[in-house]
Design a protein that fits this description.
Blueprint (H helix, E strand, L loop, with lengths): L14 E7 L4 E6 L6 E2 L4 H12 L6 H7 L16 H6 L12 H15 L3 H5 L7 E3 L13 E2 L2 E2 L7 H6 L8 E3 L1 H15 L1 H10 L5 E2 L2 E2 L15 E6 L3 E6 L4 E7 L10 H17 L1
Antiparallel strand pairs: 1-2, 1-12, 3-7, 4-7, 5-6, 8-9, 10-11, 11-12
Helix pairs in contact: 2-4
């Protein structure tokens, strides 16, 4: 299927796919163009916040889980100022609330963790990153797909998210870039160092919420694709990226695209690809 895959009917032109075998710490990849660094968008959240919790559990406070799992009552999104964004984020009270996916919540958790630890989130979270998973401002002479336009110019090698671009420093909600090899190796590294697959299986068995430890959980005709077990978790990224991990089978798959290149609002083709590829990949792994 992968070798015959065509993107001619899509709004994007770059695709990388990875399959992960956590039991044996191995992976396989497919790329339409080798070595591209993709904007991971919201995959940044679990790659920073979740990873920090599992590496540094003593930093954690109970209300941090409200922020991690989008139940803290913070707005989903809004324009933040370059100079005072931290004060703006800290102005919201944290309280147990109905689930609302929130970039603000992710940023608030970053601010709280940095205050408590005295370290930057980048320092806390980067312990498992492969050399080909980097903060967007650290991209040096690397090829990255176009993910849209900003002020009439193509966005390539810059973060697509406007708040992350405007803030212009390391953020928890968006800003990481990676090749498919770099992200695959990083996830295997994270499991090797924290055994997060085993721990997530226990968490999922007792969870009744949509988000568990900051990861999304598939329901019904999920974009994870048919073939996943009940102990599956993952995350989507706005630029057309995704990670899905089947905790029961200890396998996973990654799909990276530049789906926002032409039309950020048209997801029909992307979602069809995610469903078909996901179903195929669960069988292939």
């Amino acid at each position: 299927m992968l070798n015959n895959l065509s993107l001619k009917d899509q709004n994007f032109d770059c695709l990388s796919v990875g399959v992960l075998d956590f039991k044996n710490s191995k992976f396989k990849t497919f790329e339409t163009e080798p070595g591209l660094y993709f904007d991971l968008a919201s995959l940044t959240k679990p790659l920073t916040l979740f990873a920090t919790k599992y590496k540094n559990p003593t930093l954690w406070q109970k209300d941090y889980d409200l922020l991690l799992n989008h139940k803290a009552g913070l707005p989903a999104w809004g324009r933040l100022s370059k100079k005072n964004w931290r004060e703006e984020i800290l102005s919201f009270s944290v309280k147990n609330s109905p689930t609302l996916y929130s970039d603000y919540g992710a940023l608030r958790l970053m601010v709280e963790l940095e205050k408590k630890s005295g370290k930057s989130l980048k320092e806390l979270a980067s312990f498992f990153w492969d050399e080909k998973l980097v903060f967007w401002k650290d991209l040096k002479n690397k090829k990255s797909p176009i993910t849209g336009t900003r002020r009439g110019k193509p966005i390539s090698g810059q973060v697509h998210d406007d708040n992350a671009y405007n803030i212009d420093e390391f953020c928890s909600h968006a800003g990481l870039f990676a090749t498919i090899d770099g992200l695959s190796k990083s996830l295997l590294n994270l499991n090797d160092q924290t055994s997060f697959i085993l721990k997530m299986k226990d968490k999922l068995k007792n969870s009744k919420e949509r988000f568990c430890e900051g990861w999304d959980t598939p329901v019904g005709n999920s974009l994870a694709g048919e073939g996943y077990s009940p102990l599956t978790f993952g995350h989507l990224g706005f630029t057309g990226t995704s990670i899905w991990i089947d905790g029961e089978k200890e396998i996973g798959h990654i799909i990276l695209t530049n789906a926002t290149k032409n039309y950020w609002y048209d997801r029909e083709g992307l979602n069809k690809l995610r469903l078909e590829l996901g179903e195929y990949l669960w069988k292939w792994i």
